[in-house]
Design brief:
386 residues, alpha+beta, 2 domains, six-stranded antiparallel sheet, four-stranded mixed sheet, 17% strand, elongated
């Protein structure tokens, strides 16, 4: 796996193991430990817009002055860049709050049991949490300019929050510009993602009672308007046709939590078959000189590649070991259609493939074809265009 100058494939595997210990986490209803471990270290990319609950909110409302607009934009940028599955989990695992404290209007992003971002609406005093290990490693390796860091970011030594104590550090910036400078550093962004996903994996609350969808809509849209010029350089995968090389998942059965609802043996068997399926297609395409990787523009596709004519493909692999074939195919089709939609929002046109391990009812080929998806069964020749 191609690693950054401050992280290795072993770091990704360790994060995945750490997250997999929390088998009951509500976050796993929307994603997986493997996907989140890769997302933490992935190149910066804004979350696709998806379907906002209140998309008609004006991000540049007449009631906001310049500093307030910048503050809402920073909140939206932070959400889109560092909150796991923000659209799906909004109001369920996290929420954006606005409240007045001692005459000041504060914007606060709370995940699970922790306030992860807080700033004055006038743009002063931006506070955020980071995973301490990622920042310390980057500073030691010189990936972050220490002098600039110390000039623009004040690191609080005290930690009044019991949750993840010892694993996180609080940071304060005087302005939105300083906070954005810090969070745009790849290792700092990874540190923010890591502490956020750990917090949600550790558990939390449902925030539906406090949820105000118009707040997310305003922040999300403000980020798009205010920081639109940042977006093009934050979209990876434009050259190779994938974000990073594929690697086999590292699954340690002993690290998985025992629960009645979680069959460790079936989970491990499914991961193994998923890897065999992926390797089968990778080897076939490699024989024709086509490199295959995983992830595309920050969207966590299983496999991605570009053919000799420049056509972009993505594939979702689905194991049928110990599972209902119909349920797995429904899940796989939904995932690959979701990924195609998200990539389209980023301006990437892709050809989607659903890859499975055994022959299935022929009606599924028709269902996939009607949705513009190719169903590929282990042993089939890949489509000619591949």
């Amino acid at each position: 796996m191609a690693a950054g100058s401050w992280w290795t494939a072993e770091d990704v595997a360790n994060v995945e193991k750490d997250l997999a210990r929390h088998a009951k986490a509500g976050l796993w209803s929307y994603t997986s430990p493997e996907e989140m471990a890769h997302w933490v270290f992935a190149d910066p990319a804004l979350s696709a817009a998806g379907e906002l609950a209140a998309p008609s909110v004006d991000p540049l409302g007449a009631d906001l002055d310049g500093p307030a607009r910048a503050s809402w934009a920073l909140a939206g940028w932070y959400i889109r860049m560092t909150v796991p599955k923000p659209i799906e989990t909004d109001g369920r695992l996290w929420f954006l709050n606005q409240r007045r404290v001692r005459g000041r209007s504060l914007l606060r992003v709370t995940l699970g049991m922790l306030e992860m971002l807080r700033l004055d609406e006038d743009g002063d005093n931006v506070f955020f949490h980071l995973a301490s290990s990622a920042v310390e490693s980057a500073v030691e390796l010189g990936v972050i300019d220490q002098e600039s860091w110390e000039n623009r970011v004040f690191v609080r030594e005290d930690d009044s929050y019991a949750t993840l104590r010892g694993q996180k550090v609080g940071c304060v910036c005087d302005s939105v510009d300083d906070a954005l400078w810090a969070l745009r550093q790849p290792p700092v962004l990874a540190a923010a993602r890591l502490v956020n996903v750990r917090c949600l994996a550790a558990g939390g609350f449902s925030f539906q009672r406090h949820h105000r969808p118009e707040r997310l809509a305003r922040a999300w849209s403000a980020a798009q308007v205010h920081f639109d010029s940042l977006t093009p350089q934050l979209v990876p995968g434009a050259g190779a046709g994938f974000d990073r090389p594929y690697r086999s998942p590292a699954v340690d059965p002993a690290a998985l939590t025992d629960t009645r609802a979680f069959d460790k043996a079936a989970y491990v068997a499914g991961c193994d078959e998923h890897d065999l399926l992926s390797r089968w297609l990778i080897d076939i395409l490699a024989a024709s000189g086509t490199p295959v990787g995983t992830g595309l523009a920050g969207v966590p596709v299983d496999l991605a590649w570009r053919d000799a004519d420049g056509r972009q493909y993505i594939a979702e692999a689905k194991s049928l070991v110990g599972a209902s074939p119909e349920d797995q195919l429904r899940l796989g089709l939904g995932q690959v259609l979701d990924y195609r939609h998200r990539l389209a929002l980023l301006g990437l046109v892709v050809t989607p493939i659903l890859l499975t391990s055994a022959p299935v009812d022929g009606v599924w080929r028709d269902i996939c074809q009607e949705n513009g998806v190719t169903l590929l069964v282990d042993g089939d020749p890949p489509p000619h265009a591949c």
